[in-house]
Amino acid sequence: MTEEHHENQDENLESKLQKIISLLQRYKLVEGFVRLQDTPEPELIESIIQKQNLANLRGALDKLHPADIARILEMIPLEDRLIVWRFVKAEHDGEVLLEVSDAVRQTLIEDMDSEELVAAAEQLDADEIADLAPDLPSDVMEDVFRALPMEEREQLRAAMSFSEDAVGALMDFDVIIVRGNVRIEVVLRYLRRLGELPDHTDQLFVVDRNEHLQGTLLLNRLLVSDPNTTVTEVMTPKTVKFLPDDKAEQATDAFERYDLITAAVVSPEGKLLGRVTVNAVIDFMREKADLEARNQVGLSEEEDLFAPVWKSVRNRWAWLAINLVTAFFASRVIGLFENSIEKLVALAALMPIVAGVGGNSGNQTITMIVRALALGQVSQGSTLKLITKEISVSIVNGIVWGGLVGVFTYAIYQNIQLGLVMSLAMLLNLLLAAFVGVLIPLTRKKLGRDPALGSSVMITAVTDSGGFFIFLGLATLFLL
Amino acid sequence: MTEEHHENQDENLESKLQKIISLLQRYKLVEGFVRLQDTPEPELIESIIQKQNLANLRGALDKLHPADIARILEMIPLEDRLIVWRFVKAEHDGEVLLEVSDAVRQTLIEDMDSEELVAAAEQLDADEIADLAPDLPSDVMEDVFRALPMEEREQLRAAMSFSEDAVGALMDFDVIIVRGNVRIEVVLRYLRRLGELPDHTDQLFVVDRNEHLQGTLLLNRLLVSDPNTTVTEVMTPKTVKFLPDDKAEQATDAFERYDLITAAVVSPEGKLLGRVTVNAVIDFMREKADLEARNQVGLSEEEDLFAPVWKSVRNRWAWLAINLVTAFFASRVIGLFENSIEKLVALAALMPIVAGVGGNSGNQTITMIVRALALGQVSQGSTLKLITKEISVSIVNGIVWGGLVGVFTYAIYQNIQLGLVMSLAMLLNLLLAAFVGVLIPLTRKKLGRDPALGSSVMITAVTDSGGFFIFLGLATLFLL
C-alpha cells in the first residue's frame, strides 16, 4: 500500500459512501435534465454544471483507497455502480477488481472492454493476476500474458496451477533474498539501494547458491544487530515454511498459532518459491467464514446484494430442491400413519414439537463438532468419547425436556398415555439427533469433504423424518 | 515469539499430539502398576523407568510452542489434560493459559493454586493479564496487581476498563516512540541500543513532547532512507488510528481493507495510548466467527469438547427452552385446526412441507443479509431495495416450487383443490419468509444488537407457525 491512499482512512466508510452517493445524485439529476431537453447546443449552462459535477465525483473517488471504492461499489445498486465505476481512475481499476466480491467483480468486468481489462491486469503482480484470471475472458488473459516479462510469466503460470485452497494460491513472489555469509552492514546497504521494500516485509529470506532456504532474517533482528556480524549468525535457522500444495487451512492455523506476519513457501527440495503474508491469510479466513455460513443454508455463490432476481433464484435453487425432497420424504412418513392421526388428531398437533426440538438439538451438536474440527480440536481417537458425551447430554435433555413436554401434553389433552408417548419420543429423537450429529461431520471429514456443507439440512432431514416416525410409531403401538 | 519455540513448527500438530499421548500412556501404565503394588520400597525398578518416562514427557513438552501445548490440551480428555498440564514448564504456563479456549482455561485454572497462578500471570504483559483477568480468582488478581511495576499497573487498569468488543481490548502497549526532529541515523542507533524490538513491530510511532501522535515511521522506510534525513521527512503523517472505544469490528475491517500489520490507538485528544497488531485482530476474527456459529444454534459458551455432561447441558439449555416454546406455539396453531385435520387427514402430512421449505428459504435470506451486514455491504438507504428483491425471488420460487408441490400433491391425493391450496400456501409462506428474513437482522442491527444471534430460531419460529396457519387456514376456507 502506498501512502497516497492513507489520506482519509480514519473517516467512516458510511460517510464516504454518502458523499459519493450525493455527488452521484447531482450528476444523475443534471444528466436526466440534459437528456430531457434534447438540445444540440453544447454550451448549455447544464453542461458546465455537469462538468463541475463530474470533476467533483472524480475528485472524491480519486481520494479514496481502492479497497474503499470496492466496498462502495458493493453497496450501491447495479445502475449506479456502473456509473461510478466509469469514473474510477483507470490506474485503480486493477486493485478495485481484486478487492470486490466475486459477484460484483463480474458486473464490473462485463462493463469493460478488452483493452481496459488488459490495462487493469497489467497494474497487478503475477499472483494477483492469477486471482482475477478465472473471471477474465480468455483473449484478455492471452494479451496480459504476452505483455508480461519472462519471469512474471513463469510466476503467473505457477500461481494459476495451484488449487484454490492450497498454500500456493495464497503465495506472492515479493521476497528479498540474501546470502548467509554476507555481513549485516552489507545487507543494510543493499536494502538502501533497493530504495523500497515490498509491503509487509518483516523478514528477508536467506538462501544458498541453489536458492535453497537456509533461514530467515527478521527486520527486527537486522535493525538491532551488530553491523559486523554475518547474516548466518543472526538469522532464524528453523522457520515456519510451507509447500505450495499444503492446505491453505494449515497455513492459516500456523499464522494464528505462531503469530506470523510472513512465511516462506518452498519446493519439496527446499528451494524458496515465494512467501505467504498475513494479509493473504486474513482474506482467506474471511472468505472461508463466508463460504461456511453460506454453505450451511445452501447459497452456492457469493450473492451480489443487488443481483438480478433470476441470478439470486439460481443461486438458491439447488438447496431448496434438496430440502423439498427431504420434506416430501418426511411427509410420506406421516402419510404412513394417516390412520392413526385420523383416530387421534392430537398427534398432528404434537408431532412438530418432537421433530423441531430434535432438529434444534442436532444442530447444536453438529455445530459444536464442526467448530471443533475447524479449530483442529478433534483428534483421531476421540470419536467414541464424543458420541458418548453427546448421547449423555441427550439423555439428560431428553429426560428433563421430554418430561416437561409430557406434563404439558397431559395438561392439554388429559391423556396420560399420550403424555408418556410424547416424552419417550422426545428422548429417542434427541438420542438420534446426538448420534447423527456427531457422525455426519466426522464421516464427511474422514472422506475428505467439508464437514459443514449442508450439515444443517441433513440433520434436520434425519430429525424430521425420524421424529415423525418415532412419535407416530410409538403412538400407533401404544395408544390405538 | 522467541526463537526457541520455532524449533519444530513445521511438524504436524497431529504427530506432536500422538507423541505426547504415547508418552503419557507409558507414564500412566507404570503409575497404575506402581499403585497396584502398593510397596513402600522407593528403589523399585518401576520408579526408575517412571523417572525416565517423566523426563521424556517433560522433554517433549518443553520442545513445543506454547500455542501447540494449548491445542494439545484442548484435544485430550480432562483427566489426561491435568496430568500433562502439571508437566508443562512453569514459565510457559502464562502463555498456554492465554492460548487455550475459555472453557479449557477454566479446567486448567481450577487445577492450579494461587501461587502458581500469580507466577503464571507475572510472565505476561499487562494487556495479556487483562485478557486472563475474568477467569482468575480475585485474590490472585490482587497479588498480581501488587507485584506489577507502577507503569504496568496503570496499563492493566486501562486494559481492564474496556469492553470486550472495543479496540481497547485488542490493544497492547509495546510501542516504540521517536521524535520527529531527530535524524534517521539517531533512530537506528537508538534501536540498536534497545537490543530487541517488540514482536510485530512494523512501524515506530512519532510523537511530540505531549505524546500526541504525529505520524508513523515504517521500518521498511526507515531501512531505505538516507540516515541524514529527519524522521518527519520520511514518516507517514496520515495514518490509520483508532480510539480505544471504537468497535473492535471497525478495526478488523480496517486491517483487512488496508492490509495493516499494526495501527495506533490514540485518546480523543490525540495522545498515543498503544497499538493494535494484526495478530490480535486475527484472534478476534476467529473468536467472532466462532461466536457467530455458536450463536446461530444457541450454544451460549465455548464448549470444552470433554466437558462434564452437566456443563454441556447447561450450555445448551436456554436455546432449547426457547425452541420448545416456539414449537409449542406452532403446535397450538395446529391445534386450532384439529377439526379440519380430522376431516381431511392429508393436511397433517402436507403441512410440514410448507413450514419446512419456508424455513429453509427464510434461513437463506437471513444468512445473506447477516453476511452482508458483517461485510458492511448494507447502506442505510437500501432496506427497501433488499426487501423488494427478496420478495421478487420468493415470488419466483413460490410459483415454481409451489407449482411443483401442487402437482405432486394432486398426484398423491387426486384432489385438485388440495393441490391449489398447497401451491398458494407455499407461495405465501415464502413471501413471509423473505419479508421477515430481511426485517429481523436489519431491525436488530438498528437496535444495536447482534443481527446473527438466534436469527435461525426466530425465522424458523415465524415460518413454522406462519406456515401452519396459512396452509391450514386456506384449507379450512376453501376445502371444507
UniProtKB/TrEMBL annotation, chains A, B:
Source organism: Nitrosomonas eutropha (strain DSM 101675 / C91 / Nm57)
Subunit note: Homodimer.
Cell membrane among keywords: yes
Subcellular locations according to the entry: Cell membrane; Membrane
Sequence ranges assigned to domain CBS in this UniProt record: 235-291
GO cellular component terms, semicolon-separated: plasma membrane
SMART domains: MgtE_N (SM00924)
Reported function: Acts as a magnesium transporter.
Assigned protein family: Belongs to the SLC41A transporter family.
Membrane topology: Multi-pass membrane protein
Record flagged with keyword Transport: yes
Keywords of this entry: CBS domain, Cell membrane, Magnesium, Membrane, Metal-binding, Transmembrane, Transmembrane helix, Transport
Pfam entry (one): MgtE
Listed name of the protein: Magnesium transporter MgtE
GO molecular function, one term: metal ion binding
Primary residence: membrane
InterPro entries: CBS_dom, CBS_dom_sf, Mg_transptr_MgtE_intracell_dom, MgtE_N_sf, MgtE_transporter, SLC41_membr_dom, SLC41_membr_dom_sf
Domain of life from the UniProt record: Bacteria
Residues passing through the membrane, by range: 317-337, 344-362, 394-413, 419-440, 452-479
